Amino acid sequence: MKFPRTWVPLASTHELDPDRPTPVEFLGQKFATYRDNDGNWVVFDDACPHRLAPFSEGRVDRETNRLQCSYHGWEFNSEGKCTGIPQMTKEMQEQVPAKRSCATTYPAQVVKNILFVWPWEEDCLSVLDNPNALPEGILKGLPEDSPTYTRDLPYGWDTLVENLIDPSHVPFAHHGMQGKRTDAIPINMTVPVDKGEEGFSFEWDDRTMGMIRSGSGEFRAPYLVNYDAKFLTETPRPFRLSALCIPTKPGWSRGIIMTWKTEDNERADKESMSQTELELLAKQKKKKKKKSLMAKVFTNLPVWLSHQLSNKFLDSDMAFLHFQEQERGKRADYFMPAPSDRCISALRKWISIYTSDDVLGPLPPPLPRSAMFDRWTQHTSHCKHCQQGLVTLQKIRRSSYATLALSVLGINKHWVPKITALLSLGVWRIVSKLENSFRVGEFKH
């Protein structure tokens, strides 16, 4: 398989549950990951050497610091060595060939909340002299402690990258969420600067949410799409977007969106300012108004709620991308006459040079909409924040149901039970709808 040999981003430790083995995938290869008692994230081949049951269905024994296969109870330490076979005595276990009983593990490290693995046959030391193949180089310039949102998407890695380097779709595909259709204007996009295997960069400007936006973007091949721009308002506002695009298997990809917090944006802005600009900024800060109540509310949204908003955003172009990819294999090349399509042409050229066909296909059959918008499988099942949020909402729903039942008993005696019943019914309906949003989505334009 032809694909650049770099460290591979697999998942975000901001979202992973450290106490259970979570399934992750890259180019059709399945892994299971958890955090051991020493605080290190461990990556296993997701198959027990005994009968090939998935470790991701197993459990982490905190008392022994072992990964246990839940099929027959075989146990393994963080290096993959088998330390216990319940079906054999210790004397018998000592006779078992160590090579056959060991699970396969992979070199792993965490940088800026992103779990990286080295899955290649080549030694990971082979890329030491190439900073762009190392986690620090892949994430260069990004925040140190970035909150993330991860979703497994029912379209391939190439389609995901293609969508992210195309700002022209935003007013239409994300109408009502990030601007409106009336924001659409001819986009001024430069011819991408070819950087060989390392990808390409470009400059562009557009309009979104009624504001002109201008800046630069890059495809830091093969995983990162990064934007650094500003809204050209009276006081320019930063716009930064960083997304990791991971090829999990043909027809599927994983997107990890890395959030730039206010302090991250301020730090990045200062690094590019002259001394005069820094002094001016300091003066403006002294006059700066306090945050409005609404701004404070949005800043302090629970993680699970911000993830539900992100789910809806990605739902809005899900069907386009899934079915577009299916058609691309049947028809001739795209027709792309506008300057805004230049990056798509550059990406297709890069793919033809640096990857092989088996990375992208053959594609699986098209999915029904119920599977296409399956938020549980694509996000909630591997996000600790959303799982905790769902548990909290279930408790609120049960409490509101109990309150409603008690209120009904006294509804004819006093006006207070009537008000309580109505409020409980309202809470119950809202919470039930929110609960469902963790499991399934949909979008109609």
The number of distinct helices, counting runs of at least 4 residues, comes to 16
- Percentage of residues in DSSP E strands: 15-25%
The largest pleated sheet is described as: 8 strands, antiparallel
Strand runs, count: 19
Radius of gyration: 25 Å
SSE-based structural type: alpha+beta
Q: What is the 3D shape?
A: globular
Percent of residues in helical segments?
Answer: 25-40%
Question: Regions with pLDDT < 50 over 5+ consecutive residues?
Answer: none
Please tell me the overall pLDDT: 91
Distance between the termini: 39 Å
What does it look like?
This protein has 445 residues and is an alpha+beta fold. Helices cover 34% and strands 23% of the residues. The protein contains 16 helices and 19 strands. Strands 12, 13, 14, 15, 16, 17, 18 and 19 form an 8-stranded antiparallel beta sheet that branches. β7 and β8 form a beta hairpin. α9 packs across α15 and α15 packs antiparallel against α16. The longest helix is centred in the C-terminal third of the chain and has 26 residues. It is globular. The two termini are 39 Å apart.
Topology:
Layout: E1 8-12, E2 22-26, E3 29-35, E4 41-45, E5 59-61, E6 66-68, E7 75-76, E8 82-84, H1 90-94, H2 98-101, E9 105-106, E10 108-111, E11 114-117, H3 135-138, E12 148-153, H4 157-164, H5 170-173, E13 188-189, E14 193-194, E15 199-208, E16 211-220, E17 224-231, E18 237-249, E19 252-258, H6 262-271, H7 275-287, H8 293-299, H9 303-315, H10 318-328, H11 342-354, H12 357-360, H13 369-372, H14 375-378, H15 384-409, H16 415-437
Antiparallel strand pairs: 1-11, 2-3, 3-4, 4-9, 5-6, 6-7, 7-8, 10-11, 12-19, 13-15, 14-15, 15-16, 16-17, 17-18, 18-19
